[in-house]
Design goal:
The complex is a heterodimer.
Chain A (H helix, E strand, L loop, with lengths): L4 H8 L1 E3 L6 E4 L2 E4 L5 H9 L10 E4 L15 H17 L2 E3 L9 H7 L8 E4 L13 E4 L2 H10 L1 E4 L3 E8 L8 H12 L7 E6 L1 H5 L2 H9 L8 E4 L3 H7 L9 H8 L12 E6 L6 E3 L7 E3 L10 H10 L12 E6 L1 H4 L2 H11 L9 E4 L4 H9 L2 H8 L2 E2 L20 E4 L14 E4 L2 H10 L6 H4 L1
Parallel strand pairs in A: 3-4, 3-6, 4-5, 6-7, 9-10, 9-12, 10-11, 15-16, 15-18, 16-17, 18-19
Antiparallel strand pairs in A: 1-2, 2-8, 13-14
Chain B lengths: L5 E4 L1 E4 L6 H4 L2 H4 L13 H4 L22 E4 L11 H9 L3 E4 L4 H10 L2 E4 L2 H8 L7 E4 L4 E4 L2 E4 L4 H9 L3 H5 L3 H11 L1
Parallel strand pairs in B: 2-3, 3-4, 4-5
Antiparallel strand pairs in B: 1-6, 6-7, 7-8
Helix pairs in contact in B: 4-5
Protein name (chain B): 3-isopropylmalate dehydratase small subunit
GO molecular function (chain B): 3-isopropylmalate dehydratase activity
InterPro entries (chain B): 3-IsopropMal_deHydase_ssu (IPR004431), Aconitase/3IPM_dehydase_swvl (IPR015928), AconitaseA/IPMdHydase_ssu_swvl (IPR000573), IPMI_Swivel (IPR033940), LeuD (IPR050075)
Chain lengths: 457, 191
């Protein structure tokens, strides 16, 4: 009996506890941000505890950041939360990528781009999209504030090992179909809870051909299918990405030799396997109020089947039998920890270049980090977006979750490169439609979604 | 954390599936930096009308169900964000147990850590409990791992470690301090 990659990673991090019971795992990196950390630091202070490994802890500001003018925080409660992280990191000796810092950005964008994230690690963060880091052949998962405090104090965490699920993605992606459509297609087919109790490993020739940024988009949304862990075996693409970054391990050759031992011995080691034929995938658009309520761009929205779908139709103001191109798009959002990286902005800019967005549409472009923003500006992408009529912003979570001034107005349909379409997610009453960066770019130009297979073929 | 042994109370049913953390708490409560009470923020969007008045149609506002300590709900409860504020809001409101058809994995841990006992029962058992009269008493017995009402008893599963923590109210960090030697050793071996 062999082991999955996930099991190997797990085994290497067990500090105490027997298989089959909750085990104490060592944490190689904790990423923290302003929202889920204040009560954790308060707990440390109450109990006169220290941060065990400030050197294995890295903080950034993202959720509350006002992206129009980062230093002008009008919301006093947001400002206090930001100042609290500044004070806490100073008091406990933790590195903070503060507002304006070259390393600042969305926590799941900066970890990888700084080389903090690499293969073979256990990475936690008080944020459900932490599975993003699993794209490097690591265990990454979201935790709550009590667990944040526990990791700060002990550099360990109690976890029950999940079962293993393999998601086998094979075949050539059609033109106009992207990594985002793989994960949306998977969740549309399998639902929002198929992964509960599992760690997912994505594998197959399609996955092997994806860039690291595409792999991150897929792992990022694993939680939308119910699994808190999503991972991909590291390969040359991974090693090439990790090389030469700010915090890349010093002895990279030795590290890579070790990382090459991270693979699943046999697909028979998975408890269950799901098969995805990438050649049959289409551009996907969410019609409802959870990511499972998603269809192909040319597919009719489903009938009302229960109370959940009835409520979703009421909220989103669409009807069964309609298709995505019939959604009146008045807002486009480009950004987030799912699709706020340079390659996403490049795809979008290539589509928008030389064109104007539809006059009815407001479009916000929010780079995932300051480094992404600077790199995009060096390529002149900011000018392309601005010339097309988009608003070019400072890095942060922005209108992905509406905890800052960036919100989609009530009743407005927004084409969005983000990860969640819950009620009120992008603003009270806002109607979110999840799609790939290319689909959102074309929706911004046309004022509605189009079947981009016809223009990209 | 207040230890849990038995909980006897009437229940509140909110039987939707996929109740996400965005529904469980308001955005503003996420900006809080103190260990404040989040009770008023629970189910913020559904509990209040646009005027700010209580929504009489929402089960939490049913006067007959006031003071209930047990919430009963559908599939995939607590999906979405890792915000433990969602579990705190349940706790601060007065819920000591949530009975669901199943839970999101991150929420499940947050619930345990917050001292709110998550109980998974079958669809039929949940529906049966939800259909009980508003004043019906339900008893949760953590040591026996049972839910009892109207003469019927249902068993539930919970890991022994999580169970003992809830039963004693022990903090995780205290427990882990017993393993300091092992943590030191792990760091020596791996650094």
């Amino acid at each position: 009996m062999g082991q999955t990659m996930f099991d190997k990673l797990w085994q290497r991090h067990v500090v105490a506890g027997k298989p089959g019971e909750p085990q104490l795992l060592y944490v190689d990196l904790q990423l923290i941000h302003e929202v889920t950390s204040p009560q954790a630091f308060e707990g440390l202070r109450e109990n006169h505890r220290q941060v065990r490994r400030p050197d294995k802890t890295f903080a950034t500001l993202d959720h509350n950041v006002p992206t129009a003018d980062i230093f002008n925080i009008q919301d006093v409660i947001s400002r206090k939360q930001i100042q609290t992280l500044e004070k806490n990191t100073k008091e406990f000796g933790i590195r903070l990528a503060d507002l304006g810092d070259e390393d600042q950005g969305i926590v799941h964008v900066i970890g990888p781009e700084l080389g903090l994230t690499h293969p073979g690690m256990v990475i936690v963060c008080g944020d459900s999209h932490t599975a993003t880091h699993g794209a490097f052949g690591s265990i990454g998962f979201g935790i709550g504030t009590s667990e944040v405090e526990h990791v700060l104090a002990t550099q360990t965490i109690w976890q029950q090992k999940p079962k293993n699920m393999g998601v086998h993605v094979h075949g050539q992606l059609p033109k106009g179909v992207y990594a985002k459509d793989i994960i949306l297609g998977l969740i549309a087919r399998e639902g929002v809870a198929f992964g509960t109790g599992y760690a997912i490993e994505y594998y197959g020739d399609t996955i092997e051909r994806l860039s690291m940024e595409e792999r991150m988009s897929i792992c990022n949304m694993t939680i939308e299918g119910g699994a808190k862990y999503g991972c991909i075996q590291p390969d040359q693409t991974t090693f090439d990405y990790v090389k030469g970054r700010k915090y890349t391990p010093k002895d990279l050759d030795a590290a890579i030799a070790n990382w090459r031992t991270l693979f699943t011995d046999s697909t028979a080691d998975f408890d269950t396997i799901i098969d995805i034929d990438a050649s049959q995938l289409a551009p996907m658009v969410s019609w409802g109020t959870n990511p499972g309520m998603t269809v192909a761009v040319d597919e009719a929205f489903p009938p009302v089947s229960d109370e959940n779908t009835r409520k979703a139709y009421d909220y989103i103001d669409l009807k069964p039998g309609q298709t995505a191109p019939e959604i009146p798009i008045e807002y486009a959002f480009f950004g987030s920890c799912t699709n706020g990286r340079l390659s996403d902005l490049q795809v979008e800019a290539a589509i928008l270049k030389g064109h104007q967005i539809d006059p009815k549409v407001t479009a916000l472009v929010v780079p995932g980090s300051r480094r992404v923003k600077l790199a995009a500006e060096a390529l002149g992408l900011d000018k392309i977006f601005k010339d097309a009529g988009c608003d070019w912003r400072e890095p942060g979570c922005s209108a992905c979750l509406a905890m800052n001034p960036d919100k989609v107005p009530a009743g407005v349909h927004c084409a969005s490169t983000t990860n969640r379409n819950f009620e009120g997610r992008q603003g009270a009453g806002a109607r979110t439609h999840l799609a790939s960066p290319a689909m959102v770019a074309y929706a911004a130009l046309n004022g509605h979604f189009i079947d981009i297979r016809k223009v990209e073929a | 954390m207040e230890p849990i042994k038995t909980i006897s109370s009437h229940i509140v049913p909110v039987m939707d599936d996929n109740i996400d953390t965005d529904q469980l708490i308001s955005r503003d409560s996420l900006k809080e930096v103190a260990k404040a009470s989040f009770a008023d923020m629970l189910f913020y969007g559904q509990r209040y009308l646009a005027s700010g008045a209580k929504n009489p149609a929402f089960p939490l506002n049913d006067p007959q169900r006031a003071g209930a300590q047990i919430l009963i709900t559908g599939h995939n409860f607590g999906c979405g964000s890792a915000w433990e504020h969602a579990a705190w809001a349940l706790r601060d409101y007065g819920f000591r147990a949530v009975i669901a058809k199943d839970f999101n994995d991150i929420f499940y841990m947050n619930s345990i850590k917050s001292g709110v006992l998550p109980i998974e029962l079958t669809d039929a058992q949940c529906e049966l409990l939800a259909a009980l009269p508003a004043t019906a008493q339900v008893t949760v017995d953590l040591p026996q791992q049972t839910v009892t009402s109207a003469g019927q008893t249902f068993k539930f599963k919970i890991d022994p470690l999580w169970k003992s923590k809830l039963a004693t109210g022990t903090s995780d960090i205290e427990l882990t301090s017993e393993f300091n030697t092992q943590i030191d050793q792990f760091e020596q071996d791996n650094n």
